[in-house]
Write a structure and sequence with these properties.
Keywords: Membrane, Transmembrane, Transmembrane helix, Transport. It contains 6 helices and no strands. The protein has helices at residues 3-9, 16-60, 77-102, 108-114, 123-143, 160-189. The N and C termini lie far apart (59 Å). It folds into 2 domains: 17-105 and 121-146, no CATH class; 154-190. Helix content is 72%, strand content 0%. By secondary structure, the chain is an all-alpha fold. Helix 2 (16-60) runs antiparallel to helix 3.
Amino acid sequence: MSVKDHEADLPSYRASAEHHSEDRRRHHNIRTEITAFLGELIGTFMFLSLAFSRTQIALNATNTNNLTASANSMPNVKKLLYISFTFGVSLAINVGIFADVSGGKFNPAVSLAKKKLCTRNPRPAIVAQLLASMAAAGFVLALLPGPLTIETKLDASISITRGLFLEAFVTSQLVLTILITLRNKQIKQI
């Protein structure tokens, strides 16, 4: 056996500074991922808790659990505007708070679209968003009296196909707004 054969059996040695640099980089990446996950979890929870509780209060304000003003099935515009405003303001506040921590996505569609701009894996953010949305619904259910009347369903006058296209259109507007905002922010930093 030659010396080279024995050297092949020995563990390899790396320079100490190189080893510490890799450990620091790995530790920094893990810490960044955990921070982003927790930011997305807490931000989504806060966003949806505020939006769900305000929606629940709006629907229970007149002891009706629907959006119609009377038996003529015309929508109550005040309730619709209040609920829309609540979701918009809640989203704006929480994106402002958590944008630098996690990106402030709070929506799986936005997380998937943002994957095109950065190399970060969107799966942890999507898991955080789903867990936070369930926790927010449970929190509002426990916090406010009565059953939770927040539900996602189409009106009888809207077909499933029309509802799908409406949802796709509105979600694409949200995604486009966020992506353009992020792009403008990146350009200003250069």
